[in-house]
What we know:
The structure holds two protein chains of two kinds. Chain A is built from 16 helices and two strands. By secondary structure, chain A is mostly helical. Chain A has one domain: Cytochrome c oxidase-like, subunit I domain (Cytochrome C Oxidase, Chain A), CATH 1.20.210. In chain A, strands 1-2 form a two-stranded antiparallel sheet. By secondary structure, chain B is mainly α. Chain B has one domain (23-87, 114-239): Four Helix Bundle (Hemerythrin (Met), subunit A) (Up-down Bundle), CATH 1.20.120. Chain B has helices spanning 3-8, 25-53, 68-93, 113-141, 153-160, 170-203, 214-239, and strands at residues 100-101, 110-111, 143-144, 147-148. In chain B, helix 2 (25-53) runs antiparallel to helix 6 (170-203). The longest helix of chain B has 34 residues, at 170-203. The interface between A and B is large, with 57 and 49 residues.
Amino acid sequence: MTTVAHAPTKAHHEPMSFWRKYIFSTDHKIIGIQFLFVSLFFLLLGGLLAMQIRWQLGFPGKPLPGGGILPESMVSGGVILPEYYIQLVTMHGTFMVFFAIMPLLMGVYANFLIPLKIGTHDMAFPRLNMWSFWLALTAGFIMLAGFFVPEGAARAGWTMYAPLSARPDLSGATYGQMLWCVSIVVLGLSSVLGSVNYITTVINHRAPGMTWFRMPLSIWAIFITAILAVLALPVLQGAAIMLLFDQTIGTHFFDPIAGGQALLWQHLFWFFGHPEVYILILPAMGMVSDIIANGSRKPIFGYHSMVFAIVGIAFLGWLVWGHHMFMSGMNPTLGSTFMVSTLLISVPSAIKVFNWMGTMWRGNLRFTVPMLNAVGFVSMFTIGGLSGVFMAATPVDMHIHDTYFIVAHLHYVLFGGSLFALFAAIPYWYPKMFGRMMSETIGKWHFWLTFVTYNLVFFPMHILGMGGQMRRLYDPTQYDFLKPQQPINEFITIAAFALFAVQLLFLFNFLWSLKRGKKAELNPWQDNGLEWSLPSPAPHGNWERPPNVYRGPYEFSAPEAGSSDFLPQHVKLATDKEPAGSIER
Amino acid sequence: MTHATATANMMHPPAPAEPGSGVYSNKLGMWVFLASDVMFFTALIGSYIILRFGLSEPWAAPGAVLNVPLTGINTFLLICSSVSMVKAYAAIADGKKYFLRSVPGKMLQDGGLKFWMLVTILCGAAFVGVQVFEYFKLVQHGLTPAGFREGSHYAELALADPVKYGAATAGLFGSTFFTMTGFHGFHVTCGVVSMLYLYFTKVLPEKYSPTDFRGIETIGLYWHFVDLVWIILFTIVYLI
């Protein structure tokens, strides 16, 4: 095995001030890390909101512990008010979808991984990248400001259904609703700028030899997701602008009394919203594919089918938005069309799940923390995917629409899916980001405790939903038919507190390892990706010269590798030809 | 590429060897951005179509509320600015960096990049100016985003002829009109501001050359797109 000299990159530029280097940075790695800290903050915030929701559902009418610090407009005698409760569910959804999961996947890992994995110096437009981060942060603070204005934050659910959201006299919140719209418009701009960057970089800046079908699946997934984001976010922006105008300058887009159409909002929102759910899961799938191949020491099973499944999911994702609206009044023929297109998505999704299992089958499994979480992702995503089939079927959806069944489903794909993938990705690329490893011991405790408590929280929600408990319900005990289910609610609440407490373990591990973690080796996971040919953390500008790429990223246990069980993409064997356009060395 | 230049150009990496799209990144990025802008206008225009044709009451007749001749002239201005943008592109492609230059045997002087970019900027700015004037007049006569203002000129006209002036649908008329044309105007303004910036930082200092005029081509793409959107908007908002 010949080795390619990878002279550690020297710093070729004048030293930069702290502000240039860490705050207004144009380096994709720093921007990724900035996104990481900001979105972890919003993740924690969303979790805190969820705890308050759970308290109210488990123990309605009982004073919230520590609720005394909240103002009178939110709690009365420590008890959460209905007006505040609806803000909680709205903002929990909004923060988690738009400011935690989406930036964690697309802000952090798209930024951090694309240049490192395709072998380039930085993004195509580094300054645009910086703008993307600062716009996202601004949007986050605008959203957060909702809690501090008179009447509190937005109150119409994260889906902002009109006319409730369009008419302050109905929702009771004037400024909160406006801030939601403004924040979403700013966030949309941030996502579009970021995605333009990702797409251009992947198309134009791959290293010599990094052909399309040698790209890691994480990059494929991020690339396709960026296309979805570029096309979907502007629709939401347009809708949010119309909603904002309805609230402020007296237009009538969504107000039926003045000739507008409330259903129009639902169509626009879900036309964005369904691609959005794949924006939230595809990058997770991509990163999990990388981690599972690495943890199984086997090439990914069915690489091409994985790529085409990503493309297939992304394409079908545009044709299914109506399945959110089966109960909104829809022509049955149209409903059936949406039902069929939705069920079709389970085909590429199943291809991916079977390919992951095929990858692990008879592999030389290494249950590191990233691998454990990646396997957790596959199992939880499967459950979430299967419950999705129930809702895709119109007749079943009639019964479970807007109940806790949907809450269970979306948490299985968003928490069990995306967040488990992130619990895999964060420790996996942590050494590349910070030069240190996260603790394996704490990580394993965190995984198992999360896995158990998470299922204790969300699985019973399926039962609650079948029993008819509505989502966004303030007090389940107000209906006689829901009273027998109240012990389940109490159980979920206690489990949810445990789940939240376990996440503090992760937070501790993350922060503690920054300074105290074990120093990372050059290639701690023995992976083939180009990023591991660099020192950790990688220097500004990554490579002195782009590396040459000789093979795909999943050459594990290849006979050519000799005694080693992995064969990095940049390592030239005697039989390898130099890729077209490679740089003389 | 020698090692020294590769090192010196680290922040401006050489064109990657994996051929990619064959289109330089600024242009590719602009195309992707325009794809997203298409979706933005699709949301607005699609909503307009659904709202307007979902109504049972009549919509205001073409030209009843809006001043079609004035906007027709404005449309002509914008199309002219697209032509001058192409002329600017052609000028720099031929290496004509100058403003105007006499050509022997021809009556008119030959325009260079500086001239045609200035024409484009002025036409764009004039378009925005006329639109502001149009808005001002419309609001003065009583068309607001919420419909006809009570007691206004249009409200009286609509009372006299509710079919022609779409009295029952004026609310949506105002909503869609101001939102769609307003966001188009915003796009034109952004284009004019960007072109002014390029004019002072790149065009006047003669930074562009026949081998590298990416800024002109990229802003040109945007400008033609904005023009195209206007032709669609003018047709569906003013003429139909």
